[in-house]
């Protein structure tokens, strides 16, 4: 399905199932197909799943406009308003989760049922008061570090079906990392800790124990700052937890969703 944003960029998304809406966003360079192992499970469990390719990602339009976290959040907000989704659950991996933090910073959490963060620290730059950033990156490395390859994101192979779907989309609509670097730099610059601390709704972090990007201890530390925060660390999983350990991820996700009913 297609949706045109207020600044005239066309986004691609899927909308499946009925019931409580869950809106999904993927991280930098990813496409919505990475969630293949979750969508059918959630639809079967009685949820309506809206899965979005952000601008410049997946099958959505390539553009030099709006390459910042606030615009990504606005895009999602406009689609949620267009679809008239009531009290959606917001689910995101990596930059997708950070986009939901931007969303809450702009619009509050009164119209949201819950937020689920998959392996994304609220602060990417390591400082003396926050040693849970991206790898060992500090302000002395910023922004230059992010102009270079970030290295592998996974600990183990993602499942074969998901891999084929992701590769098919990548071939059909290649991701232009160089052109999209301003977005990555804006992402790395942000500090969402105050947003997490201000959440009044249920908040879950699912981290990969073997994430190449983050110390999984960030999950418990971050969750404790939220009023209704909790965390799960999935063993033998890297940054793309949902596609590396789909069964364990889905179990943790469904357990949390059951507490919201």
From TrEMBL:
SUPFAM superfamilies listed in its UniProt record: alpha/beta-Hydrolases (SSF53474)
Every AB hydrolase-1 domain range: 21-243
Keywords, alphabetical: Hydrolase
Keyword Isomerase: no
Entry GO MF terms: hydrolase activity
Protein name as it appears in the record: Alpha/beta fold hydrolase
Biological source species: Lactiplantibacillus dongliensis
């Amino acid at each position: 399905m297609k949706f045109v944003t207020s600044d005239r960029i066309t986004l691609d998304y899927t909308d499946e199932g009925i019931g409580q809406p869950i809106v999904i966003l993927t991280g930098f360079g990813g496409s919505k197909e990475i969630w293949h192992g979750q969508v059918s499970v959630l639809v079967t469990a009685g949820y309506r799943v809206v899965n979005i390719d952000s601008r410049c990602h997946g099958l959505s339009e390539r553009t030099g406009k709006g390459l910042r976290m606030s615009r990504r959040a606005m895009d999602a907000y406009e689609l949620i308003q267009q679809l008239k989704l009531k009290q959606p659950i917001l689910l995101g991996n990596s930059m997708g989760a950070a986009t939901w933090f931007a969303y809450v910073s702009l619009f509050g959490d009164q119209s949201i049922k819950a937020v689920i963060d998959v392996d994304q620290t609220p602060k990417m730059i390591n400082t003396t008061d926050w040693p849970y950033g991206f790898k060992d990156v500090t302000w002395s490395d910023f922004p230059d570090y992010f102009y270079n390859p970030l290295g592998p994101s996974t600990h183990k192979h993602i499942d074969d079906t998901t891999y084929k779907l992701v590769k098919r989309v990548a071939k059909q609509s290649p991701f232009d990392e160089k052109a999209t670097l301003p977005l990555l730099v804006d992402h790395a610059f942000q500090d969402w800790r105050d947003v997490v601390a201000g959440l009044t709704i249920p908040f879950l972090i699912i981290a990969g124990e073997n994430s190449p990007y983050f110390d999984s201890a960030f999950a418990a530390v971050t969750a404790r700052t939220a009023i209704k925060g909790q965390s799960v660390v999935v063993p033998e999983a890297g940054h793309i937890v949902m596609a590396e350990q789909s069964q364990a991820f889905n179990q943790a996700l469904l357990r949390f969703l059951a507490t919201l009913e």
